[in-house]
Specification:
1 helix, 44 residues, mainly alpha
Length: 44
């Protein structure tokens, strides 16, 4: 019975990690695009 309590949080973390990682990746891409646009606008 105790193993169930130990496994449950691990499963919850495993289920929620991929979307968090994808959001961070999306944010990084958005930041890169913003920097590229600023450089292009500034004529660098």
């Amino acid at each position: 019975m105790r193993m169930g309590w130990l496994v449950t949080p691990v499963l919850v973390m495993a289920a929620t990690m991929p979307p968090i990682v994808m959001e961070q990746a999306d944010a990084a891409v958005v930041d890169k695009i913003a920097v590229a646009r600023k450089l292009a606008r500034d004529g660098v």
